């Protein structure tokens, strides 16, 4: 049976995170994940997780200077000190709320130096996260939403993960981004399963409720089920109506 994790970066993101966790529970989600929880008191987030029994699957490292349009720091040569401070911050927060994964955001860059910088920062994150049983994730983003983002395809991610060779550094397979960039979703999920740490979904191309759009998630999720994948699937979509609508969950349970 497929279970789902509510991505609170998009769902109920107008509410304080502890309240959003409770709303996700009431809507029938089995887990939660977020983007940047740092403005919320970790002890209040932990209390909401305990009250609902939901686990926080993941959070992201800080993006850097938002006024300058930054979207992560870890593949930016010369910005290692800030990238590592963001990694430290995310690990400290994840420990407090017992989150499972940290998505280390690469940022806008390209080339061999950027790759080397990203790998070194990921090794740093891997070492720091290991004693706490936290996994590090890297996520390719599509070139329409994040033009010039360093990590854009699962092929590129696979190559980086092979070079890193750490069992706690994995791929965040966001079907929305990868359908846009590469397609062939079910074959890729099957082949990459050993290096996948988390899977996310949304409709393509409009990133709304997963039961619409060009990708048939009924089929994708049943293939994952056949592969024995049983972790909650991240629902990372923006509700079409503006107000969160969770009725699509009934199509897949
Ligand atoms: O797909 C996304 O946009 C997110 O998973 C994320 O963490 C980066 O914005
Ligand atoms: Mg995603």
Automatic annotation (TrEMBL):
It holds the Pfam family AP_endonuc_2. One of its GO terms (biological process) is glyoxylate metabolic process. Its EC number is 5.3.1.22. Gene3D superfamilies: Divalent-metal-dependent TIM barrel enzymes. InterPro entries: HyI-like (IPR026040), Sugar_Epim/Isomerase (IPR050417), Xyl_isomerase-like_sf (IPR036237), Xyl_isomerase-like_TIM-brl (IPR013022). Signal peptide: none annotated. Keywords: Isomerase, Pyruvate. Belongs to the hyi family. One of its GO terms (molecular function) is hydroxypyruvate isomerase activity. This is Hydroxypyruvate isomerase. The active site is at 139 (proton donor/acceptor), 236 (proton donor/acceptor). Residues 22-240 form the Xylose isomerase-like TIM barrel domain.
């Amino acid at each position: 049976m497929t279970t789902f994790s509510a991505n609170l970066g998009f769902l109920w993101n107008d509410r304080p995170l502890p309240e959003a966790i409770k709303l996700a529970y009431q809507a029938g989600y089995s887990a939660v994940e977020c983007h940047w929880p740092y403005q919320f008191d970790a002890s209040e987030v932990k209390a909401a997780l305990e009250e609902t029994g939901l686990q926080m699957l993941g959070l992201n490292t800080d993006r850097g200077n938002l006024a300058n349009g930054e979207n992560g720091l870890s593949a930016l040569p010369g910005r290692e000190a800030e990238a590592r401070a963001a990694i430290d911050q995310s690990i400290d927060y994840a420990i407090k709320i017992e989150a499972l994964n940290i998505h280390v955001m690469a940022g806008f860059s390209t080339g061999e130096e950027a790759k080397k910088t990203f790998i070194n920062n990921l090794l740093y994150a891997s070492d720091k996260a290991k004693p706490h049983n936290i996994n590090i994730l890297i996520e390719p983003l599509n070139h329409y939403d994040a033009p010039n983002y360093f990590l854009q395809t699962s092929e590129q991610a696979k190559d980086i993960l092979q070079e890193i060779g750490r069992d706690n550094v994995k791929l965040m397979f966001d079907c929305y981004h990868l359908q846009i960039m590469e397609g062939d979703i079910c074959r890729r999920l099957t082949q990459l399963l050993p290096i996948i740490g988390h899977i996310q979904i949304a409709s393509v191309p409009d990133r709304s409720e997963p039961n619409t759009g060009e990708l048939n998630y009924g089929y994708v999720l049943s293939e994952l089920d056949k592969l024995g994948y049983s972790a909650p699937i991240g629902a990372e979509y923006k509700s079409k109506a503006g107000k969160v609508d969770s009725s699509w969950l009934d199509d897949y349970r």
